[in-house]
Amino acid sequence: MSGVAVVRRDSNASGEGCTDAPVLRERGQREVFCGLTGIIWLHRKIQDAFFLVVGSRTCAHLIQSAAGVMIFAEPRFGTAIIEERDLAGMADANDELDRVVGQLLARRPDIRLLFLVGSCPSEVIKLDLSRAAQRLSRDHMPDVRILNYSGSGIETTFTQGEDACLASLVPELPAEEAEAPPSLLVVGTLADVVEDQFTRLFDALGVGPVRFLPSRRADALPPVGPNTRYLLAQPFLAETARLLESRGATRLPAPFPLGIEGTTAWLRAAADAWSVSAEAFDAVTEPARRRAAQALSHHRERLAGQSIFFFPDSQLEIPLARFLSRELDMTLLEVGTPYLHRQHLAEELAMLPAGTTLSEGQHVDRQLDRCRAAAPDLVVAGLGLANPLEAEGITTKWSIELVFTPIQGYEQAGDLAELFARPLNRRTRLRV
Amino acid sequence: MKLTVWTYEGPPHVGAMRVATGMKGLHYVLHAPQGDTYADLLFTMIERNSARPPVTYTTFQARDLGADTAELFRDAALEAYERYTPEAMIVGASCTAELIQDDPGGLARALGLPIPVIPLELPSYQRKENWGAAETFYQLVRHLAGPHAPAPGAEPAPRDPARRPRCNLLGPSALGFRHRDDVVEIRRLLGRLGIDVNVTAPLGARPADLARLGDADFNVVLYPEVAGIAAGWLKRTFRQPATKTVPIGVGATRDFVHEVAELAGIDASEVLASEECRLPWYSASVDSTYLTGKRVFIYGDATHAISAARVASEEFGFEVVGLGTYTREFARDVRAAAERLGIEALISDDYLEVEAAVAELRPELVLGSQMERHIAKRLGIPCAIISAPVHVHDFPARYSPQMGYEGANVLFDTWVHPLMMGLEEHLLGMFRDDFEFNDTAQPSHLGAGSIAGDDAHGAAPAAAEAADTTETTETAVATGAGDEAYWTEEAERELKKIPFFVRGKARRNTESFARDRGMSRITIETLYDAKAHFGR
Ligand code: SF4
């Protein structure tokens, strides 16, 4: 069994799969969230950070509604709603922002890191949040560090908000000493439980020290330097990666840790950098791979041969499609992504079956036409589209769950498959 | 700028979407960035609509700003027309597009589409969802019914007695709190009275239906928040009178029947005599005596809050201790309603302010929106939902109107349900130490217990004070007031023998009793003195 996950690992030689596949570039209505949405998971992940959106009532309403449920524990996010008087110049927007930040920090003395999050309105009126962050930092350091990034819909799509947030953290990371031994940085928000599992695996492999960005606490940011090797845990972190490299860190190219194959290749990229022998690697990962293979087998019967169509959402679409096609034998009809980062997805693209239709960007009406024509067995779509598709008789998996559920790593491979199997399973149960 | 944690209302273009989504054959082209498409989920997920809202978003991006966002709008409008072939179109901007000033109205007009194209000006930085819905509905009515208006000054012809009177039902929209069922209930009631419904709008109406609004003898305004402006215009332009009573509760429904009978020129005595409603008897029956004087806090949109206040005081025998709304447009009406009850209205769309008010008043029941449900849960107070903002649970599968006689039955069940039954309440009071059957075993009480943790973050200070009611520590009353009386340990222990659902009131009364007498300590004696003083 131990070979199960790695048999196809070497297929990522260049020129295979979808490496050079044409991409349907669409322009039209994009039915996707903006980058502000990332706040929903980031504010839970970084426990001493607060996210203050500087935006409109729309922005406040988006975050509140996109969560699907309202998180009524005192949330660590809020919106400074721009009002008519700020626009009409009756109030100086910077003074107003200072006042709101003062009010907020007085309410929440436990906050160590405050993100000023830009929105479409704040960008269109050219409210300079980076200057505001500097100015406010001067007033509130050392108690509170104040950073800024943009989650605006004119610049960021859904998960790109996390990229922008993490990118704003990179210049703040302490410098790792030049003579420090190599360290591993895992970049991208993972569920705490997944982080803990990976930590145990890296420990067993002798890979380390291992650190995570974002860290659970803002006052314990991981250091970075020329001896930092980093692994992307999420496919949407283009800008964060660029900035990490400018601080000397080196990316370990790998597919993403979804499914057995992805997780194995991802762990192996680190193991190789730490010169872990193949035998040791197999010995450490074998029990987890075996468990994962067993968990997947429960769902393969349901999913094998079923066709799937992805609407663009989180940029996780290509790694998910790769997992579903290679480990569960699903048929890929169209894999839409809001943005295709060829370099970070090189390993993934090489593993996709040749001939898969890839689309980037969106023209939602035309894509719905294509989807209906393709008559897939399962569609992955956002909250605005899911019920209407389901009502048309097309079985639908709502995509936001893939961002809010632990899906990475061996122990979650079965759960991930189950997320796709469940809607199909439900269809066959219902007799009403 | 205003610091906001949760909002009661969305932006005004979401109000416009509620009108467009409620209607048929209408399409909304909205100049907006991609993130604003989140609003679709309000309809597809919360209301569980099976179709996408009829809205096309331009989803312009930063790189378009330098180029031509106007072009993008034109293309989107044209494409939407060709794809959906609507009978009429509304066009407008969301908050971001408002700033770039592309003039969607002018651009759409220039396309020369062969259908009515109605421009919306919804100032996003001043106004909110309900106003946006009202303004959108008004613009639709004005543009579509306007061409059929009688000459100014012309008196409407009296109704041919051979024709049954007819009215329009105005205000129900998509994403409205129980609008779907209220419409059914009120249509049924009007039918029994012999009144026909000419048009129901916006919910279920087509643009062509709005054009014939003038055919009705009068208008029934179910939700003034949405239909108020349009009804005012119809009154001025078509001389159509409009109802003022919102038929929520038995008394209001009776008044409503009188009012429409008067407007329709018919006799309603038969309908009134054969009234079928269980609320009056259920409320009078002896097991309901425990409801007497229960202190309730009411919050919601103006219509539902005002109606609930009347029902609570007149039909449940509750004592309304707090009444408020987030609908600033109707603040005056809510203030007047509060004044009639001898209290001061809270007009605020600040969630934290409402939370502080609930914590301060310590009611025994909260009637509010989903926002107040969370406040009540934190404070361990029973709660029933009476108003938007809505949640998926506010679209129950069963028939569940708020209006009319059946609506009153629904109110009775819904409001009584979260409360503890009368005799159970007594037993709890008698045997405080029963290890299985005691108030601390209540799930709602556990909710209150968890506040202490949350409050470490410095959440609403008032909430902390309410949490106090379950703490054993000897504390100074009313945080921050140095000259307040403190509770002795014995008194605090005695207080805990009072069931938690009245404990808040006992604490408050005792504290105010002590304060009025300038006492520095609260002893067991003070507690019982206060009890005798305030005795219900
Ligand atoms: S798209 Fe822009 S305006 Fe809309 S919610 Fe996102 S940041 Fe706010």
- How many structural domains does the protein architecture of chain A include? 3
Hetero compounds: iron/sulfur cluster
Assigned CATH class of the largest domain in chain A: Alpha Beta
Mean pLDDT of chain B: 88
The amount of helix of chain A comes to 40-55%
Count every beta strand of chain B, where a strand is a DSSP E run of 2 or more residues. Answer: 15
Radius of gyration of chain B from the CA trace?
Answer: 26 Å
Q: Can you count the helices of chain B? A: 25
**CA-to-CA gap between the ends of chain A?**
42 Å
Main sheet specs of chain B: 5 strands, parallel
How is the biggest beta sheet of chain A arranged? 6 strands, parallel
Which stretches of chain A are low in confidence, meaning pLDDT under 50 for 5 or more residues running?
Answer: 1-14
- The tally of strands of chain A reads 14
Write the layout of secondary structure elements.
The complex is a heterodimer of chains A (432) and B (536).
Chain A: E1 23-27, H1 39-45, E2 49-55, H2 57-66, E3 77-81, H3 84-87, H4 93-107, E4 113-118, H5 120-124, H6 129-140, E5 145-150, H7 160-169, E6 183-187, H8 192-205, E7 210-213, E8 228-232, H9 238-246, E9 250-251, H10 259-273, H11 278-303, E10 307-310, H12 317-327, E11 331-337, H13 346-351, E12 357-362, H14 364-374, E13 378-381, H15 383-391, E14 396-398, H16 401-404, H17 413-429
Helix pairs in contact in A: 7-9, 10-11, 10-12, 11-17
Chain B: E1 2-4, H1 12-22, E2 26-31, H2 39-46, E3 55-57, H3 62-66, H4 69-84, E4 88-93, H5 95-100, H6 104-110, E5 117-119, H7 129-145, E6 166-170, H8 179-193, E7 196-201, H9 207-211, E8 218-221, H10 224-238, H11 250-264, H12 269-273, H13 279-284, E9 295-300, H14 302-315, E10 319-325, H15 331-340, E11 346-347, H16 351-361, E12 365-368, H17 370-379, E13 383-385, H18 404-416, H19 422-430, H20 443-449, H21 451-455, H22 461-467, E14 486-487, H23 489-495, H24 500-516, E15 521-522, H25 524-534
Parallel strand pairs in B: 2-3, 2-4, 4-5, 6-7, 6-8, 9-10, 9-12, 10-11, 12-13, 14-15
Helix pairs in contact in B: 1-7, 7-10, 8-18, 14-15, 16-17, 16-22, 23-25, 24-25
Bound molecules: iron/sulfur cluster.
Iron/sulfur cluster sits between chains A (34, 36, 55-56, 58-59, 62, 119-121, 152-153) and B (33, 35-36, 95-96).
